[in-house]
Amino acid sequence: MAKHDPDLTLLFQALSDPTRRAMLSRLMEGPAPVSVLAEPTGMALPTVMRHLSVLEEARLIETEKTGRTRLCRARPATLQAATAWLDDQRRIWEARTDRLEAFLATMQDEETSDEDRPDA
Amino acid sequence: MAKHDPDLTLLFQALSDPTRRAMLSRLMEGPAPVSVLAEPTGMALPTVMRHLSVLEEARLIETEKTGRTRLCRARPATLQAATAWLDDQRRIWEARTDRLEAFLATMQDEETSDEDRPDA
DNA sequence: ATCATGCTTAGCCATATTGCTAAGTAATCC
DNA sequence: GGATTACTTAGCAATATGGCTAAGCATGAT
Q1: Looking at the 3D structure of chain A, how many domains does it have?
Q2: What is the extent of the structural domain holding A23?
Q3: Does A114 map to a domain?
Q4: Cβ of A46 < 7 Å from strand C?
């Protein structure tokens, strides 16, 4: 089913750098060439390229070279993989608290029953 | 407002390791001592401790030592920070596609108008 | 008091990450 | 053709990461 299952490790790793998050965020607003992405970072181009290739390997962006400029665009669908994992965790947690509440409710019921029977 | 704003860099960094994700996932089901978390990893205890301290610094878990055992529990609220950032990105993207669709709709309208006027 | 348990500290090793500069290549402009 | 632009490649340095072993240190059991 999952044709290109995105690697959560690559994904979170790519997102763990503020420069890369800023670049991705910028690309979410629309495609941009490398130099435009580089400008606000104040970093050297090779450094920026490195960040971009990390984002690309994580499938968070895709790039296409036309002439001498390389255009980068976000692949927003990939973020879904991260969101999905986070949602899974929340579900696990909620299942746990649900069980806990059910258990506490049972305790409460039994306590009430005890009070009902004076011979307890 | 945000008393302990979780650092997204620390957060995503902590989540970028499969061992740590597994340990966190386990803790979402309920608290556990270090040795229980260590067991399924097959790793040496110091290594596990290292992972745990990364999770703790990212505020994804909290630990408490009683006697000679240290109990670890998840801090699920922290995951919200990650979810929030991802949601922001999705919003940025959607705002962009909305603008795009509005633009395309405008194009469509103008084209229709042109067709309406035979002198175009 | 002794011993086992459950971390904890210290330190080492290999590799990965994040930045740089210098030099190269290919496309566009004049 | 020659200069300029926009990346690209190669390679280096500093630090971070992820694993280990060996030894230390309390606590709980006998």
Answers
A1: 1
A2: 8-78
A3: no
A4: yes
